[in-house]
Design goal:
The protein has 391 residues and is of the alpha+beta class. It has helices at 18-39, 53-61, 85-110, 132-137, 158-172, 193-204, 212-224, 240-243, 283-302, 319-329, 337-346, 353-363, and strands at residues 3-10, 14-17, 66-69, 119-124, 147-152, 177-183, 229-235, 249-258, 266-267, 270-271, 274-275, 278-279, 309-314, 372-379, 383-390. The strands form four sheets. A nine-stranded mixed β-sheet has the order 5-4-6-7-1-8-15-14-13. A two-stranded antiparallel sheet has the order 2-3. The radius of gyration is 22 Å and the shape is globular. Residues 95-185 form the FAE domain.
């Protein structure tokens, strides 16, 4: 069985308290409403079709203290969005700088050279051709015949799904090592699409109250997502690092689950101003049934009972997601403390979030050797990935 040897995470240099990001969005919405009232000879103080105070409620309810952004906030021009090409080029370049430094740190922690790696897997929503792992090969001294694979379009699911697919590879190559890195720089949504969506939706709201739900969805997205990189080094069970006792977790089994005809719940369609994040409020309702099915199937085929699980590493899509997991499995609230802590410190950084939770879990006192844990993510599809690990 494959093993997790080492983990490392990395973050951009720009960190913004949640209050700063909230003020940015509130000011944008206030300016839009003032313009509308001025054009229609209405009193701004008496308008009732949108309450600006609810912005604070959404930004505080997600229980996030701050988030990292790849592109600094003062480069975002809400009035003159730059289109698609320039922000994406900038995002790819800056993201690759961060990926390179984080993977370098991962290799240093494991005392390995790039040439000792047999497979590199990338997970991202960034539209890059060549793919990110091929760009990485030109920055670090990997073997030119190294195997690589790119997973795209999986969003928040990607961290756990990437682990599962690398696990599949190493089962057939037990003497090899592999690196997984994931990154979804969600601050790119601020480079046009979030502000453009709010401009369009608030402009339609007085005549079309049905747009209110889309405005709320956009505000929740603005309140949740940030940037970061997660990396993991894995090895097959015949690799020297495993035989030397350097492994931290054994992967016992994995389980994927796609819920049919639920693609409307979570998506990232491309617009004239960049990606638009779709995140429907009913996602948390689907999480309960989906994760329950995935976990039940995984435990049945591995012969482990739910009562034997002592460590839960769950992707914190938002507070409602974590609350849904606690309710569905009747867990004590502090069982998901690491997930809550990561959400508070960095927000939701999509696919890399679960790898940050894994990294933080391994840095803290953990259960005795032989204990079982679960790694769980969910994302577009709507899909779940569950991984059973043993300390």
């Amino acid at each position: 069985m494959p093993y997790i040897i080492e983990t490392a995470t990395g973050f951009p240099e720009h960190y913004y308290p949640q209050e700063v990001l909230e003020v940015n969005i509130r000011n944008h919405c206030a300016n839009l409403l003032q313009d509308y009232c001025r054009e229609n000879q209405l009193d701004f103080q008496e308008q009732t079709f949108f309450d600006l105070e609810q912005i604070h409620r959404f930004f505080s309810n997600v229980k996030i203290q701050g988030r990292y952004f790849t592109i600094p906030l003062d480069e975002f021009d809400a009035d003159n969005p730059p289109g698609i090409a320039q922000p994406f080029r900038q995002m790819v370049d800056l993201t690759m700088d961060l990926v390179t430094s984080t993977v370098t740190n991962l290799l240093k922690k494991a005392a390995l050279s790039p040439k000792e790696i047999s497979l590199v897997t990338s997970v991202t929503v960034l539209p890059s051709v060549p793919s990110l792992e091929s760009l990485l090969l030109n920055r670090l001294d990997f073997s030119l015949d190294i195997k690589r694979q790119a997973l795209s379009g999986v969003g928040c699911l990607g961290g756990a799904q990437g682990l599962a697919r690398v696990n599949d590879y190493l089962q057939g190559h037990p003497t090899e090592t592999a690196i997984l890195f994931t990154t979804d720089p969600s601050s790119g949504l601020w480079q046009g699409s979030i502000h453009s969506d709010l401009t369009e939706l608030l402009g339609q709201l007085p005549e079309d109250p049905s747009q209110y739900s889309n405005i709320i969805m956009t505000l929740v997205v603005a309140a949740l997502f940030g940037d970061g990189v997660g990396t993991v080094l894995l090895a097959g069970d015949e690799h020297p690092l495993v035989k030397q006792g350097k492994a931290k977790l054994k992967i016992i089994g994995t389980q994927s689950l796609l819920m049919p005809h639920t693609e409307h719940l979570m998506a990232l369609p491309l617009t004239d101003y960049g990606f638009r994040q779709i995140l429907r409020p009913e996602v948390s309702d689907y999480v309960k049934g989906g994760v329950r099915k995935a976990v039940t199937s995984l435990l049945e085929k591995t012969g482990v009972s739910l009562e034997e699980i002592v460590c839960w590493m769950v992707h914190p899509g938002g507070p409602k997601i974590l609350d849904a997991i606690v309710e569905e499995f009747q867990l004590e609230p502090d069982v998901l403390q690491v997930s809550w802590d990561i959400l508070a410190e960095i927000g939701n950084i999509a696919s890399a979030t679960i790898l940050c939770i894994l990294d933080e879990t391994l840095s803290r006192p953990h259960p005795p050797t032989g204990s079982y844990g679960l790694i769980i993510s969910m994302g577009p599809g709507f899909a779940q990935e569950a991984i059973l690990v043993q300390f």
